[in-house]
Amino acid sequence: MDLTCRTSTLHLRDTFTIARSSVDTEQVLVVTVDAGGVRGSGEGSPVGYWGESVASMADAVAVDGAALLGDDLRDLEGIARRLRAWDGPQGAKMALDGAAHDWVGRSYGLPVWRLLGLSRRLPPTSFTIGISSVEETVARVRRAPGFEVYKVKVGGPDDVERLAGIRSVTGARLRIDGNEGWTLDGARELLPRLRELGVEMIEQPFPAADLDSSARYRELPDRLPVFVDEGCRDLASVPAVAGYADGIVVKLAKCGGIREAQRMLAAAAALDLRVMLGCMIESQLGIAQAAQLGALADLVDLDGHLLISDEPFTGLGLVDGRLVLPDAPGLGLVPAGAAA
Known about the structure:
Strand order of the largest sheet: 4-5-6-7-8-9-10-11
CATH architecture of the largest domain: Alpha-Beta Barrel
Distance between the termini: 23 Å
Number of domains: 2
Helix content: 25-40%
Structural class: alpha/beta
CATH topology of the largest domain: TIM Barrel
Number of strands: 15
Largest sheet: 8 strands, parallel
Radius of gyration: 19 Å
Strand content: 15-25%
């Protein structure tokens, strides 16, 4: 088996601003495994607020990657157990897990979603609008027509005006993401107007550690549903969320890959938690890994590849605001410019 990894720099179409940061580029790690004449590729994104970086991910894969994959790439559950026990970066786990799934699917001549026994039909994905001026917010919505749902990053001084501007040009459903930037008093003050504007849910309004605000918010009679993102990492995080929120956001970069994400989806269903399948800024390769599980999710927020200008992979479709999974083996993607 030959295991390699490389850094890929993704350039955003527009500066992407959330409550805690702004970026123009993002780096991801692409891991490739060659064995038995078959090549599988996976991508991982660093979780910056956990101190991860692409450099630390690459170093970890170089040291432990081969041992984690083991001598039988078809043993996806065994690989998942080793990744779960490993103390390496979550983004590195995502890349290794993705490469193994891609390799197995290509070996058997089947798409990963079929290997998992799932449908290729996904709920509509939201399209994310970062924090900017009211005018630029509206312009970005106009430049991205055809989506049933827009997810709007909030945490700036003009949040209500921006949402009103969006509502003036589209009847699409609206979701908002606070990225831990709200206070309970601020949320309480905004709720009536958010309801008037048709906002249907709020993602991570309060800091992950501020469980008191989350619990007190849950007691409000007119609250909007809350989905926990930064406060929900992996399977072990899920049960606690059921006590103070309505849903979880599952991201492969946080939980470490397809296998762990599937366990989280099952646990959420057992606890009557709704699930939004989310992403970081990723190429089609990283998005495709999460999208294999899309049929199990209540909501889908897999648009990271739509925010970049230099897509390194192709094969993932988009029709009427829904991702279309390839019917080709594995993850079904090819490098941009290469023949399928």
